[in-house]
UniProtKB/TrEMBL annotation:
Lineage, broadest ranks: Bacteria, Bacillati, Actinomycetota, Actinomycetes, Kitasatosporales
InterPro entries xrefs: DUF397
Stated name of the protein: DUF397 domain-containing protein
Taxonomic superkingdom: Bacteria
Domain called DUF397: residue spans: 14-64
């Protein structure tokens, strides 16, 4: 995980949530589209704080999701 959390997100930032998310929108992460390094991630229920992951860490996380049932 990167140490540098963005201070602000541009108003044009588009956030994406997994299509596997529950219909109520809870318990999900959202990822900013069009930003590749670091990868900004936030909680869908509380969109204020954003954390940023390095590309390798994010790739490992996403890769692990595909291996769990």
């Amino acid at each position: 995980m990167e140490n540098n959390t963005p201070d602000r997100e541009p108003s044009s930032t588009v956030w994406r949530k997994s299509t596997y998310s529950a219909g109520d929108g809870g318990d999900c992460l959202e990822v900013a589209l069009g930003v590749s390094h670091p990868v900004p991630v936030r909680d869908s229920k509380n969109p204020g704080p954003v954390i940023a992951f390095g590309v390798e860490a994010w790739g490992a996380f996403v890769g692990h999701l595909g291996t769990t049932g």
